[in-house]
Input
Amino acid sequence: MTAIEAVSTYLPPGIVAIDDIGERIGQTPRQLRLYKRFHGLSEVRRAPDQTLAELLSAAASKMTALRGREHQVRYLVHARTLQTVAPYPANPLHEARHLLGLEHAEAFTVTEHACASGLLAVDLVGRLLRAEGNPEALGLVFTGEKTFTRLAQFIPDTTYMGEGTAAVLLRTGDTGGDTLRSYVSHTRGEFSAGLWMEPEFASRFQEVYEETLAEVIARALTEAGITQAELRLILPHNVNRHSWRRLGKRIGYPAERMFLENVPVTGHCFCADSFINYRSAVDRGLLHPGDHYLMAAVGLGATFSAMVFQH
Output
């Protein structure tokens, strides 16, 4: 069984209002009002003086559960939204591996599910650890990216991107930690063009978005053997408040039990959102031993994913 042993996060100190970003990239005042009033966005965190490797290692360096156990890390994985995250020949993952003294770990990236790749990486690393059969072995998953191009700074009419990062320490076993109870992922390949979809496909994607995500969440709950009423929290990707509140109404889940507090202050941090939200929820005492919670994310392309854990 896969278990999360620890999650640590890093939110850069630089705070940038979405008005400032919008003006630089050519957003109109009307578009900015949509982002702020309708989607609940306000500001994002940016780190212009830090590299991606530094952002990733900053999250991991705060993880006390890793200290003294670095030699046990077998897999170091960066779950990414974008296929290219730095100009050639930079390799942020290998740089972070060096900064953390983890050169012995197998390092690779996962990008196939876009913003849902973080959940894919958790499942994949758990499978690798179980196949290895060493109960002492650990896996470390990085999430988060730089907004280093114009297209990486926002999703039109949907959200603005931030540079927060998260590190997730994984192991096998069913004692301690947060145990993975189910993982469901469904790809709607007809929308594979993502940001470059033709208008008719983009319109259709909006029509099926809620329905498909609701189905994936329902399947994850069924596979975990719990009802929606037993679900303590949903930890979503921070695309915007509006889409999650609409989904909550559709499935009959209370808005106050969807953790949306970070949306106005972090924006959408690529694959890191659910883990940043997890850290915030735990720090605020919103999860107690035995509680079930669900992480959910949608990646352009289009992959819908949900994971149920028991705290």
User: Anything to note?
Assistant: Residues 178-310 form a domain with the Peroxisomal Thiolase; Chain A, domain 1 fold (CATH 3.40.47.10). The chain has a mean pLDDT of 96.
